[in-house]
Design brief:
Elements: H1 3-13, E1 21-22, E2 28-29, H2 30-43, H3 47-57, H4 65-75, H5 79-86, H6 104-124, H7 128-142, H8 147-158, H9 165-171, H10 186-197, H11 203-217, H12 223-237, H13 248-262, E3 303-308, E4 314-319, E5 324-329, H14 334-343, E6 353-359, E7 368-371, E8 377-381, E9 387-391, E10 403-405
Parallel strand pairs: 6-10
Antiparallel strand pairs: 1-2, 3-4, 4-5, 5-6, 7-8, 8-9
């Protein structure tokens, strides 16, 4: 494209005063929209494109330098510097503006979250003395303001009794908040106390055993995942837009696509094998199920009732012949649907229902069946006022491969 043509094209998009919102409804902030685009471009590996977008729109790639620095420190495990950025009280000599938390309560909670994460990391690495020093000199004084925070500090102290990183991970749910009430069991506490006070073995042997056990269990604590969890907790304490969540644009697109497809009453085979962001599918009369895909012909008389299991993988059909048939349901794969749609031949699709077993035991017609919420039990009733409860008796969905069963509980 020649420079003159390019200039005419760009002039068509130019606006002397760009609007503050975008979209037909006028509810999307232009600045936030551009920042999401910049974040997506960086995550796609094209930071130069993000910088170019920033120059064209005058929207900086990093809206809050302090938030970017805080994120970098946490991902690197530099909790001391992260605390200095997050807590204005710890850097009173710094003339920069304090971190923009929502309020003073959120600022205090952010500092505690960082210290708590550092405390967990020290315990997971086997640095018990450093962890206890951190708890005594920083966490406990900060928690002395309210009874709730004091109780939180006490619960954190009990974590020092965990003997391995695996025990620590289990006690806190790996990354759970310290307000969890079931941090350490009495048995764990007593065992840890015995291990601490025991002097029957030599110091060198005990140290070697402790080091070996810690090394074997280190994989139970994921430092990188714990840091990402900390970032998510801090993001909720800051105003919107200060600390953007990773992949926010992708998350919003997935929510929109999922909502759009939930609104579709029927899924047509013409939809193909994938979902396109450029497609706005609609449901027409041609998408309404109108072809017989399969005939289920195992009953000897009229079928009076049917019920799908809650997960959709089993179908129970009740008949006038006094039996209940269980059918294993297999939905075709998207690739199979796409191939059938391309050939305009639904008959190439595999059968949807396969007979799993027949339940016998009723002497009269069966007018109703019902699955339990967990899908493990089936209740059947018949016209002679008998109600049978059927239970799954194998690891398979039905316990049968087309056979009969008479093992019901009346």
């Amino acid at each position: 494209v020649s420079p003159s043509v390019r200039a005419r094209i760009m002039s068509g998009f130019a606006s002397p005063s760009p609007p503050s919102v975008v979209g037909s409804l006028g509810i999307i902030s232009r600045t936030e929209y551009i920042r999401l685009l910049q974040q997506a471009l960086v995550h796609l590996g094209t930071p130069q494109a993000a910088l170019a977008l920033s120059r064209e729109t005058n929207v900086p790639v990093v809206a809050h330098a302090s938030a970017s620095a805080l994120r970098a420190c946490i991902l690197e495990g530099d909790y001391a510097q992260a605390l200095a950025i997050a807590d204005s009280r710890s850097n009173s000599d710094d003339k920069s503006a304090p971190f923009p938390w929502r309020d003073a309560t959120c600022a205090l909670e952010a500092s505690l979250q960082i210290l708590q994460a550092q405390y967990f990391a020290l315990l997971a690495d086997g640095k018990l003395n450093e962890a206890l020093a951190l708890l005594q000199t920083q966490i406990t004084p900060m928690c002395a303001s309210t009874p709730r925070l004091t109780a939180r500090a006490h619960r954190l102290a009990t974590l020092a009794l965990c003997r391995t990183p695996r025990d620590l991970a289990r006690a806190v749910g790996l990354y759970a908040d310290a307000t969890n009430n079931s941090l350490v069991t009495p048995s764990t506490r007593s065992q840890a106390a015995l291990a601490t006070t025991s002097t029957s073995t030599s110091t060198a042997a005990a140290a070697a055993a402790t080091t070996s056990a810690a090394a074997a269990a280190t994989s139970a604590w994921d430092h990188a995942a714990a840091r990402r969890k900390l970032l998510e907790a801090l993001r909720r304490l800051a105003p919107p837009g200060v600390m953007e969540a990773d992949g926010r644009l992708e998350e919003l697109l997935e929510i929109a696509v999922a909502a759009r497809n939930r609104a579709r009453v029927f899924v047509s085979a013409r939809a193909g094998v994938g979902l396109s962001l450029f497609d706005d599918p609609t449901t027409g009369i041609e998408d309404v199920p109108s072809r017989t895909r399969q005939l289920l012909e195992e009953h000897d008389d009229e079928v009076w009732y049917l019920s799908f299991r809650h997960d959709g993988r089993m179908l129970a059909t009740a008949s006038k012949d006094g039996t209940v048939a269980l059918w294993r349901i297999r939905l075709p794969e998207l690739s199979e649907v796409g191939a059938a749609a391309a050939n305009n031949d639904p008959s190439t699709l595999p059968p949807i229902a396969e007979l799993a077993c027949r339940l016998r035991g009723h002497d009269e017609p069966v007018p109703c069946v019902s699955w339990s919420p967990d899908g493990k039990y089936l209740v059947t009733c018949c016209e002679d006022n008998d109600v049978f409860l059927w239970a799954q008796n194998t690891d398979d969905d039905t316990g049968g491969g087309g056979g009969d069963s008479e093992r019901g509980v009346r």
